[in-house]
Structure formats: C-alpha cells, structure tokens
Amino acid sequence: MSNISTRVSRSSISWILFLSLAISISSVAFIKLLLKKQPISLVECASAPQIRVLLSRNCQKYKVSVNNGCTLSAINEKKYSGKHTFFVTLSGKTILLDGKDVGQTITIIPTAGTVFSLGNFSYQGKITFLINNEKLYAINTLDTESYLAGVVAAEMPAHWEMQALMSQAIAARTYSLFIKEKFGKNRSWDIKSTQANQVYRGISAQHLRSSLAVKNTQGLILSDPKSKQANGLFPAYYCAVCGGHTENSKYVFGDDYVCLQGVKCPYCKETANRKFLNWPKYSISKKRAFEKLVRKYPTLSKLKSLSAIVPIRVSKYDNLTRITRFEILGTNGKKDIVGGEDLRLTLDPTGQKIKSAATDVVVSKNKITFKNGKGFGHGVGLCQYGALAMARKNFKYTDILNYYYPGSKIKRIY
Ligand SMILES: [Zn+2]
C-alpha cells in the first residue's frame, strides 16, 4: 500500500510539477508577448502630429526588414506580403532598391500595426530614404506619441518613479515639437535620433512603464511666456545630473527663455551616483587637445599651437561653479573663444570623462587637467536625478516641472 501510495503520490507530484512548470512557462511567454505587443498600441495617437526622425545619414547601404508586408511609395505603389528584406543602396545620384534604380527617394510603408527593422532596432511608422548632399538619409516618420515612447525609454531608466517618467515625457514632447516647429520646415527631417537632440531607439527600447508615462501625459506640453513659437513651445532641455544648480540656457545655448533660468537643485545629490556628483580628474596633452580643437574648428589652426585655455565666463553658485566660455590662447599670441560645452565635448566627444563644464581647469607646461568636476551633462533645464529624488519625496510631475522650468505652464495641445 505504502509503495503504491508512494508511487501514486510521486506520480501526482511529478504531474503537478510538470503542470506548474508548463503553466509558468506559458505565463512567462504570455507576459513576454504582452510586454512585446502592448507598447505598440499603448501610445499610438492619431491626433498627434507626425514627426520625421533622422535615423542615419552615414551609410551607403541599409538593410530594412518587414515582417508582415508593406507598400513602396515608388515603383507604382508596389505591394509586398509576408516577410521581406530590402537592401537600399546609394549609387551615384540615385537610390538602388535590391539593385534596381528607384530615383532620388523611396518610402517603405509597413502594413498598419506592424514594424520594420533597420540595423539593430525595430521601429513603428514608415521609413523614407532620400539623397541629400550626396548622402543617403534614413528617416522614420511616425506619430509623436509613439516616437516619445522610444525616447523616454532611452533617456530615463524605466524602473524610475512614474512621476519622474511623466516629467521626462512632457519635457521630451515639448523639446521635440519645438525642434520640429523651428527647424523642420526648412529640411526633409525634424529631429535627430542621437544625443545631439534626443536619443530614440524605436520600439526596441520601449518599456511598459515609460510607455505608460507617455500615455498618462498624452498631448501635454510646457509653455514659456517669452517663446515666439506656437503654444509657447521652447527647447525644454534636460540633463542627467546638474551637480547642485541648473544653468541659465542663455549662457550655454545662447537662447533666452523665462523657463530656462538656473535654479538651485538640492535633489540630485540624494540619488545620483558618486561618480557623477564628483567625477575623477582627467588630463589631456596640449598637443592632442589642439589637434581635436582644430579638427572641429578648422579656423583655430591660426593659433599655431595651444598655449592655454582660460575661463572667461563663469556662473558662480553657492555650491557649484560652471564655466560657460573659454578663451583659447595660441603660442603665436592669437586667441579665439569656445563655449564651455563645446570645449568639453570636442576634447571628449563621449562626455564620459569630462562629464560637465562645472570643473576646475589647470594648465601646465604640456597638459590640461580638469578636476573637482561636478555633475553630468550641460546642466540646463530638468535635472533627471533631481526629478527622481523629488518623485521619491512624493512631489507630482507638475511640481517637478514647475521647479526645473520656473514660470512654465502645462498645456494640452491634442
Ligand atoms: Zn540636480
């Protein structure tokens, strides 16, 4: 009896284990499916303006894949069904699609509700290739809300507090619509997909929580009383860690807005990693620094070689000093001026070593040393780690935005 009973109970246990495993595997698969599918429909918004995002202009050849059919704008609206991979190549003054000449431009429009992939990422909307200044541009067009889902997920960790994510979504929406309105009219694209504007990684980067932050703030923007753009749009800059005080945009980017004045930030020190709050010193030889400067600003070759760099405009706050303009002195006595952000990003394009312009600069015989550096990024507008700290103290997104963009008003524009 006991043997049978043991066998029965062992067999039952095996079945239970097998069933639980099967259920948990299928649940995981189901959740994964949900997470994978949901962001596509979560934020799509037909009333949101379309935005054209420059994905790349540095390749001669692109590989584009669709999973479930598409239409081509050229070649008499030719339709494809099922999976298909296209190779788009620049050939002199024309574009070749799978080796066939299609002229100056072509748009691949995936079937509604499906995505396309380019390089390592997948994207919603459609993709246009066109020739501009002898380069082949790849431009993704989609509604602004879907675009923002791919920005917020790339610009702020998705596990951060919802109120911080919502602040980020509104800042990013304001910034992108401003850039589109101000610059998009005179070119074939609106915004770059890199740090030059905002990082965008399409649907590949999307996360349920960042998409929810976009959905929760759909159509909301910030408005500046001094802006001449429609709806008071302004470039609502943001940075990772201000280091203790945000900076007036006028001194960094040269644009003057009421909402982009610097404010004291007692918050980021509560959440940011030590390596961002006080970053390690960094040295570069004068020779190497001058090579980099001349490559970026060829007119600096008139200085012959580098003698010194001298801060000539500095913002001094209680707890932070940020250099916003440098004089570059040549060994032949000539000189020129470079902005603080321009200098640090020329000497260190990654921005990972000279993390901010809130730093001391020591010039010795052969090298330049940046030390006592504080913060990470340009310091203008929303301080992301500060927003995280405020959200943890139960401030709402309205408080956070009002703090970092003083004088701004939140408006719904669609
Ligand atoms: Zn801060």
Could you walk me through the main structural features you see in this protein, from its secondary elements to its overall organization?
With 414 residues, the chain is of the alpha+beta class. The protein folds into 3 domains: 50-205, no CATH class; 219-274 and 378-412, no CATH class; 279-371, no CATH class. It contains 13 helices and 23 strands. The chain has a 7-stranded mixed sheet. A 6-stranded antiparallel sheet has the order 7-6-5-2-9-10. Helix 4 packs across helix 6 (208-216). The longest helix is centred in the N-terminal third of the chain and has 42 residues, at 2-43. It is globular. Bound molecules: zinc ion. Zinc ion (ZN) is lined by residues 241-242, 265, 267-268, 383, 386.
What distance lies between the first and last C-alpha atoms, to the nearest angstrom? 73 Å
Bound molecules: zinc ion
Question: What assembly state would you assign to the polypeptide chains in this entry?
Answer: single chain
Measured by DSSP, the beta-strand proportion falls in 25-35%
- Placed side by side, the strands forming the largest sheet appear as 4-3-8-11-12-1-13
| Average pLDDT rating | 91
**Stretches with pLDDT under 50, minimum 5 residues:** 1-9, 30-39
The SS-based structural class is alpha+beta
Q: Roughly how many Å is the radius of gyration?
A: 26 Å
Instruction: List the domain count as a whole number.
Output: 3
Q: Biggest sheet, in brief?
A: 7 strands, mixed
**What's the number of helices?**
13
Helix content bin: 25-40%
E-strand count: 23
Characterize the overall form.
globular
